[in-house]
Structures are given as structure tokens and as C-alpha cells.
Amino acid sequence: MTNKLGIIGFPIGHSISPVFQQAALDHCGIDATYEAWEVAPDHIQTFIQGLREPDVLGINVTVPHKEAVIPFLDEVDDWATEAGAVNTIVNRNGKLTGHNTDGYGFLQGLKQTARFEPKGRRVLLLGAGGAARGVVLALAREEVQELVIANRTVARAEALVRLAQARGVASQAISLDWNVLGMVAVNADLIVNCTTIGMAHGPDATGTPLLQQQIPPTTIVYDLVYNPLETPLLREAARAGGGVLGGIQMLVHQGAASFKMWTGQPAPVAVMLEAATQEMKARSH
Ligand code: NAP
Known about the structure:
By secondary structure, the chain is of the alpha/beta class. The chain has helices at 17-27, 44-50, 78-83, 102-113, 130-141, 154-166, 178-185, 232-240, 247-263, 269-283, and strands at residues 3-9, 32-38, 56-61, 75-76, 88-92, 95-99, 122-126, 146-151, 170-175, 190-193, 220-223, 244-245. β8 (146-151), α6 (154-166) and β9 form a beta-alpha-beta unit. α1 (17-27) packs across α9 (247-263), α4 packs across α5 and α9 crosses α10 (269-283). The longest helix is centred in the last third of the chain and has 17 residues, at 247-263. The protein is globular, with a radius of gyration of 19 Å. The two termini are 37 Å apart. The model has no long low-confidence stretch (mean pLDDT 97). The structure holds NADP nicotinamide-adenine-dinucleotide phosphate. Residues 127-132, 151-153, 156, 176, 194-197, 199, 203-204, 224-226, 247, 250-251, 254 line the site of NADP nicotinamide-adenine-dinucleotide phosphate.
């Protein structure tokens, strides 16, 4: 019996998960297909009920369904409860469990690829949307020393500051102002971009929140944006001489964690990264 896996979203055409998850399944010789399913919000409950069938291993969940699926699951793990969002559902004998591998994937990219340990470090986080919230929770788990959160809408940064402080992390909010950012960046061990600045087809596709001269050569810059693979911010950071990490790292590592939950096997991360990178390159032409 060929097992089923997939990702749901609305829309879903942008997702490259089918490409790198199928590459991983084929590489490991697992008899399963991974598809993309566009599911409208009013069909979520029926769709989730169908996941209890014996040939379904599980699914990934993306925007806008990450919160909406929760009431239809039998159990939700700690990471997903804390995030208030599920990105992975596992079916075990008709029982559905919800998980969130985004924060873990973010950390794995940092630790495995950049060899960066966040504990005791100073972090400058740009942005205060959904992705930033997950990153704040992940970095708080790792006991970073200080978290400065910069956002265009400062009130949203302040809400994340309260979240970080409630978890024992010294934190402050600032505006996404060029000069203020530069002053904070000087002291940062890690800068994470969780805004859409630099994202293809986004509101500021050619922009960068920081320039080369504002980025110390010892600082790691992690841009969650993965389209394009090399963002304007990553180009500035590379010129500054420090370590750079693209959003494809987080994307692949969150998928690798999901793969392990569904199959019980370690994910072939290098195979997944290569497939994801090639797909992004092909789509950019
Ligand atoms: P979101 O909830 O919509 O948040 C968008 C953020 O970008 C907010 O902080 C917003 O500021 C800021 N922003 C938007 N336009 C701006 C502009 N013109 N100037 C300055 N700031 C601007 O989005 P999200 O879900 O957090 O996603 C953010 C980015 O992360 C996206 O590019 C997404 O693709 C990427 N992401 C990557 C992964 C991965 O696996 N690599 C996972 C999740 C997300 P305001 O609060 O002021 O509006």
C-alpha cells in the first residue's frame, strides 16, 4: 500500500515542500507520495477527519490553517501549544496528534549549519509577525541573554517583548529605524530577519533592513526569507564578512523534523536541502 503525505494551505502553489519531501521519501525507499492540497477554510474539518484513514501517515499545515486545525486533533504537543499553531499532523492508527516543528527547524539551521549556540548570546530580531513569534519562543527556550525586537509597528514588537520577558529573557522593543538599528546591531551576536523585506513579490522586494557597514564581521545573519535564496540583506551580510544563513535552512529543517515523526527514520537533510535549493533556482527563472 502506497502511503499518503502532503501539505495543506490556501493557496498552496508556492509551497516547495512536495519537492523536497518526495526527494527524501524516494531517497529512503519509502513507498509514499507527498502532495500539495489546496483546502478552503470551510472544508478544514472534513479534510482533517479524512486523515484518520490507515494509508495516511500525516500532513504539513501552512497558512492560513495552522491555528484552525487544532480543535479537530486528539492531542497537541508542547511546542504547538506554546506557539498556538500546528504545522505537522501525525496519524497513528486513527489518532491525530498536532506538532510544531518551525521553532525547532529554525534552531537546527542555526546549530547544524552555522554551528551557533544561542545560549547566553545577544540577538537582534527584525519583525514581529507570526514567524517572529515562533523565533522568540525558540530563542527563549535556548536561554539567550538579550533579545532586542525591532518592528515597523512598535506595538507588535512590544507584545513579543512581553512574551520573551515572561520566559525570563531580557528584552526591549525598538522601531525599525535605520539609525537605531545600526546602534543595536553593533552589539548583536545574531541578527534574524523575520520581516518580509527582501522577499520576492513582497512589499519591499529589493530592500534590506541593514547595510554592510552596520553589520559587525563577527555577527551571524539569518534571513527567514527564502525567496530569493540570496536576499539583499544576505548580500550585505556576506560583504560584512560574517556568517550568513538563508530561510531555506529553516524550511528544510522543519520539514526534516516532520519527516522523522511520520516515518520514524532520520531525514536525509542534505538530500532535502539540495532538492529545495534546485527547486527555488528553477522557480526564479
Ligand atoms: P507576517 O506575520 O505578515 O509579518 C510580516 C512582518 O514584516 C511584520 O513584522 C511586518 O511589520 C513586517 N513588514 C511587512 N512589510 C514591511 C515593510 N514594507 N517594511 C518594514 N516591515 C515590513 O509574516 P510572517 O509569517 O511572520 O513571515 C515573515 C517572513 O518570514 C516572510 O518572508 C516569510 O516567507 C518568512 N518565513 C520563512 C519561514 C521559513 O521556514 N524560512 C517560515 C515562516 C516565515 P508590521 O508589524 O509593521 O506590519
